[in-house]
Amino acid sequence: ESYFTYAGEPESPVDHDIHFRPGIGDDGSDTFTPRTVVYDLKGAFGTLKRENALYGVQQEKDAARQGLWGGSTSTISQPSIPQNAYQQHLDSGLEPPPLTTETVRFWSDYNRVFYHPRSLVPLHEYELNSVLLPFERWETGEELFANLDKEHDLLDRDLRPFLEECDQLQ
User: What subcellular locations does the record give (predicted)?
Assistant: First the structure.
């Protein structure tokens, strides 16, 4: 991300159009998000949210919900996971402290980029730190994805929208 350049800046030594998809954020500014689809267990994304500084998904959900139900609704939510010191330092532009096994709780604790809302796909069948240890066996993950693919056609739902944006898919 440190090599990103925007309008009016010198050209970057890295072509970020290859691994990052260009887009337009809620405020109309140019954005770049990784060309990726991340599947992870429920609760494993940590402080990483589908809504971020680039994309406000909640506004779209609220607009869509208004026309579906005329009755009253109540929102139930879990408390937010607090950011660790490393992320807080990155967000404020300070030199971050070193990462250690004691300070990293989730892979997103040392994440620096924003993701497109469609890139993050939680797997609700299992929770992080479950006593079932769902991915101790490779076959369990294969079975989960096979069942999800039967239900949702993962290629069309999750991957195809990103593939259709590519000019020269390789």
Answer: Mitochondrion
Rounded to whole angstroms, the Cα distance separating 170 from 167 reads: 10
Nearest Cα to Cα of residue 114 among 55, 164, 68, 28: 55
CB 158 within 8 A of CB 151: no
pLDDT tens digits along 13-38 = 777 777 788 877 777 777 788 888 99
In the chain, pLDDT over 90 holds for what percent of residues?
0
CA distance 21 to 32: 5
Q: Which residue has the tokens 């607009």?
A: 63
Is 105 within 8 Å of 39 (Cβ atoms)?
no
Q: Which helix (H) or strand (E) holds 60?
A: helix 57-66
**Distance between start and end Cα atoms, the chain:** 23
In a 13 Å sphere around the CA of 147, the CA atoms on its Cβ side amount to 9
**Looking at the chain, how many residues does it have?**
170
* Model pLDDT for residues 105-120, shown as the tens digit of each residue: 888 888 878 888 888 8
Mean pLDDT in the chain?
Answer: 79
Judged by DSSP in three states, 24 sits in strand
